[in-house]
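Support case: user asked for a sample of complex input and structure output to validate their parser. Sending the pair below.
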Amino acid sequence: MTANDPTAVEQRLDALTFGPDGLLPAIVQDDASGDVLMLAWMDREAARRTLTTGRVTYWSRSRQEYWRKGDTSGHRQYVRSVAMDCDGDTLLVRAIQIGAACHTGSRTCFDGRDLGAVVGDPE
Amino acid sequence: MTANDPTAVEQRLDALTFGPDGLLPAIVQDDASGDVLMLAWMDREAARRTLTTGRVTYWSRSRQEYWRKGDTSGHRQYVRSVAMDCDGDTLLVRAIQIGAACHTGSRTCFDGRDLGAVVGDPE
């Protein structure tokens, strides 16, 4: 069985639970730095492409089309690993990020967007 | 203006975009290790409580109630920072995690759930 065996891939996809809109959230983490880069959405086909092609692919909710990260911007994401969570309704993608992950040009989509939360301290 | 100033908090909440179900995804990252621990959901009130109390609070979609992480399990999450993403529709919470983040008892919800993706390599 190879990573690309179609039956094995479909079995893995069967373990996932997509929402009412057919999508689940995918967190992307920089495999080198550990920084959380962004969150985007995948349907089954986008997850299939991400698992089998080495390039992270999303479903764009705003454009209603598949979106292989970097095809327009050059800011490609190369898959290092993909894991699902305990409920199978979230993916964690570790990736090599070329250039900026965020369309604003910042490295991550969270840079400079701190909300000033009250810090909690364990007693 | 303090972190708890009610007007400032509401202005920050106004910058967020919640989905049709009134929720947005919150990624939780271990502030010490950088590991992504889990993803859960917040409505405006859960986000308000997370920003102002020092304890991470979600909206449980399965139980349809507020869920202050650790109240039952003891596995509390203490807020270190909260950031929104460029679209304001995802939160990244950095937290001190007491015990296991996952209800299965594993440290993160993604442990041992690798999907065997094909690895991509930049040329």
